[in-house]
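[09:14] KT: can someone run the structure on this one? pasting the chain below
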Amino acid sequence: MNVFLDAGRRILGLCLVVLVAFPVFLILDPDGSTTPLDVPMRRAGWEYWSHTWGASTAVWTLLVLGAAILAGVIAKGRVSRVLSRIGRAIARPPTWSVAAFMGLLGAALTAAVVLLVFDGRAIFNDANVQLVQARYFAGGKLSGPPLAMPEFWTIQFMVQTAAGWVSQYPPAHALWLAAGIKLGGPWIAVAATMGVLGVFSVLSFERLLPDRIAAARLGALLAVTSPMLLALAGTYMNHATVAAFAALALWLSLRAETGRAVWALAAGGAMGVMVATRPISGLLIGAAVTAGVWLTAPRQEPGLHRPWLLRRFAWWALGGLPFAVGFGWFNARFFGSPLTLGYTAAAGPSHGLGFHVDPWGRVYGFTQALGYTSTELISLGRELLGTVLPVAALIGLYLLVARRLERGERILTAWALLPVLASALYWHHDLIVGPRMLGEAVPAWSALLVLATIGLARAARRDWLSDAVAVLVLIAIGYGLAVGGWGRVVRLTGRVVPVPEVTEPGPSLVFVHESWQDRIGARLAARPMRLDSVRALINQFDPCRLEGALVGAQRPEEVVDRCQREIGSDRLGRLGLTDYLWRGDLPGLGGAGVLWTRDLGPEANARLIEAYPDRTPLLAMPDGEGRGDGLVVPYRMGVDALWGPTPP
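[09:31] RB: done, structure tokens below
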């Protein structure tokens, strides 16, 4: 069995090296004739690969490499000895003091990113939708009400059901955000997330690697300072939540290994939170850091090991049961079945894993899986730490050449690589904050990088080479921590959407002017129509033809004036309702502030204005200067500026 496991990890290591060292992404279609996403993923792969291997950073790469080799030749092993002494100093402070420091560091950095860099705003539709859901949870409701006029509020990833208007995402992360909202703001929740991650990364890594305390602590430090994870947490994304509860589940599982079996009850609960946040990665990572711990534990005395395992698995299942029941009940209430996820209810069965046509109508096959995975693994170094270091290749090389892997290294490898497998089988890929589908595995990648660096340095047969490896990695990580990482976070500020100021006192109804395509999509979704069908129609047909179908026109010429008016209304630009919605009053929650809604033109808007007579109508329109800023003006002024006279 050990022979097969050893061969397996070497094969995995070779795959990582090949996917990062060679431009495998070039198998993607450069013209996008099969799948349009091939084009940006191929282009991004080339940019990351060139950056990583020095083609676009040639001078600096050569200088750093030369400096590392020169330092190794001059030092002749002294660098390694100094680093060993530093490692012993790092391992000296008591565990709980280091854990507390790491928790405070993670929380403080995240709060700074949320409040100072992103000004408390989200940059992903995913997060905006979960914040809407969190607002309903914080208001004591499971969802918004079934919308009487859904076309005014329907947004991507919110699902209109008979039981209410609800997010497609599993509820655990929104509940976590709701707790933050109740305490003063959702930023509190994500800061706490990274605080939990910092504390339990230290505690769990030290138990997992008892003879390598310094490496465990350095791995935790890289995790809480990772620009990729800070950006995900700082924009309210749920990947960081899974990562934090994975670290907690790992610590609880290790406590259950050496202590009472009841610790497994809490481990099952932590895994339940993970699954009810991101089901696939929650299941895979959760199994690795809980069941994986007990299945690889040293065997008990003969005849006692099986009962020992059974007790832990029994408590583990019992701990996860309330979350499974609650998650299933939530799904059944809103989506018709305990096993039907909101993703499927929103976009159909094509949202699932596997090779098929995705909800956008794009082909996702083996070629895409291989090419996209190559791009994401190459990008990991730059996004994980803000440096050119080929993290996945270094870890792959270590897996390939190491004589044996310790138990802790095997568990961390499973945590890191299982999401890569899941991502390869999943059609959705983007690189806005790096390979975010691997975000929940950042702690494992960070710890493995430290272990791989130490392992490769020790494996070098010559002192100068060992020192050169250590210096090279230290320079790269030092640059990332000091400069590169912060730059990777700050670059995302260009995606932050300013919220226009509403100066009108009292309750108001602010119509947000979106694009014609968005308005058509909202009207189609309100019929109701599933998201994949809406996307298919919008991608396949001209907007004017869809406009004609929506108003029941028999011939295209009947809607020529209407179409020209719709086009003309967009001449100053467009805004996005999703960016504003969660920040004001919401349908069904009441309030005396701003209720954001969609501008559908003066005739349609009149119905909503009539339904909210106690609110002052206003209009949020683009500023016309192309910056994406919104300007709130009196309703009649805005209508006249955008829509002109009402057609007969």
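[09:33] KT: thanks! The radius of gyration is 27 Å.
[09:34] RB: yep, looked fine to me
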